[in-house]
Design a protein that fits this description.
globular, alpha+beta, 34% strand
């Protein structure tokens, strides 16, 4: 098995980056995005709804200008109360 934890992702910035967001509602996910991404241009597309209908997933696409920004957005979304998971 290959251990990818020691590999560093090499990207050319700025680049388009996609986050998969899972939350309880579209309104909650949109609130989280406005709190974290602010006025930054982005696309939010609905993805799937869980079998029970409790969770909804969305694809968030935006341009990131550096690795620090990419990671900061990930961590901020992950810590937001309206987001259950970020992939």
């Amino acid at each position: 098995m290959i251990d990818l934890s020691k590999e560093k992702l090499e990207l050319t910035y700025p680049c388009v980056w996609n986050y998969k967001l899972i939350g309880l509602s579209e309104i909650g996910v949109k609130t989280a995005i406005s709190d974290v991404v602010l006025e930054k241009p982005h696309k939010l597309l609905p993805s799937k709804v869980s079998r029970s209908g409790k969770y909804q997933s969305f694809d968030l696409e935006l341009i990131v200008h550096c690795e620090d920004e990419r990671i900061m957005i990930f961590e901020s979304l992950r810590a937001h109360s309206e987001i259950k998971m970020v992939l």
